[in-house]
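User: two proteins, same treatment. go.

Assistant:
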Amino acid sequence: MKRLANEYFERVYSQDADPWGFETRRYEERKYALTLAVLPRARYTRAFEPGCSFGVLTELLAPRCDALIASEVVPSVTARARKRLERYAHVDVDVGAIPDVWPGGTFDLVVLRQEHDIVDVNYENVGRARAHGIRDVLRRFLHATRRACGS
């Protein structure tokens, strides 16, 4: 599985605290709303969100999860996410990137947002995710989300 080098993300975040407009762009706001809307269940026992950036979507997912693990490859951005999410005792934010970092245990939700652009998230890799105990792999919404958000 190929992915962009950690240095790329370190450079991007060093030049702009919100390089993709996660907190400011209407597109992102709509994408978050659609992501939450397509979740097949109201509540999840244990969820994983790789590539959480500084935790905007993670913050929206937190109230719907009993336990939520998020990861981000850039340590300074991980620290921002931890600060943002510190009021949620059931949320852990770790430094790391898929496929290298898969938390132990099982999940009933994994949110793969735009990692399909960054990581080769293909059907074989979704199968690998399922082998790690993941029951719902939220991938199908990506194409519908892009259409609905106008990109």
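Protein 2:
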Amino acid sequence: MHTFCVKVLGFVLVLSVAGPCWAESKILSISASNGLTYTNNYAKLVGKAFGRYVGFSRYNIRLLRGPKSTKGNITNQIEMWLAREVTEHDLIVIFLAGHGFILENEYYFIPETKASLDNSKEVLIVANKGQFLSSSELKKMIRNINTRKKLLIIDSCHSGAFFQAREQHTTKLLP
């Protein structure tokens, strides 16, 4: 059993893993700034930390930052890269940093968007809801990744609501 402690921007993440290093494992690290200056380098720093301290190959670290962190690009990376290229023995990490909110009992991550976020009224949010990534959409994509070792890290407002399912039963990310 190997234990790794990674500290990034004041966050400490401890991973305990059995077996060899995670060189074939993959990380998708995303920071959507939308005016949040502190998220700009999060994706890069988290990717570097997993490469340097946990042993992820640099070829298996993908970063989406700023204008590249759109809903379409995030969905594409999860569905076309992670869901297709991992094996059941790989560890995948998805890191999201940016704005988040709750609408109609569901958590939404706000990828890079052209919608103005200066006015946080519900009308604006509802009008642009299709540009945002809902917890339901994320859960469905994560379930379709063929590995049992999945780590999702969300650094946004209201991220705790990600696991508050609409259904009465506990949300299950594993098949």
